[in-house]
Amino acid sequence: MDKLATDMSNLANTIARSLSEYLGDPSTRCITKSCSKSTSFLRLNHYPNCPFSEETFGLVPHTDSSYLTIVHPDKVGKLQLKINDSKWVSVRPKPGALIVNIGDLFQAWSNDVYKSVEHRVMTHSGADRHSIVYFLCPSYDSLIGSCTGHSPIYRSFTFGEFRKEVDKDVKQLGCKVGLPRFHL
């Protein structure tokens, strides 16, 4: 597990640096400097089969509260992405392929150049689903602000402040509000 977490961390940091360089950010390491093994994490997911309905959520629609998320899916699939703010499309798993999602923090940091994708997991009536997921996250006191040099869309905030708002929203509203809470 340690080797897998290290490999996923190295891959996530490489992708984050590449995406940052594309934006022309002179401090492309600011994302990766704020992330470490102690703040990022690996999650093993198990979604039991559901004999009742394949319209049952294994995981409700949401965006990730990370910079990047790397998913190693199994062959069952059932991960769906929301496109054009209305249509859900299934991601077909390919052997040996990984899925990379932009998270809320990268969206804020890039000033909406990159978008955090809303996604969900549906159940399967005939098979359990498993996935390995790595979340690239900063420390709770890391400041998240726009890197683009253009007028920021979001006010600067810490990851801890963001997580606190997400937790509060889930308790009070039953769902995550996320980035809209931080619009200027």
UniProtKB/TrEMBL annotation:
Q: Which domain of life is it from?
A: Eukaryota
**Could you tell me which residue ranges the Fe2OG dioxygenase domain spans?**
37-138
The protein in question is named Gibberellin 2-oxidase
Q: What organism is recorded for this protein? A: Rhynchospora pubera
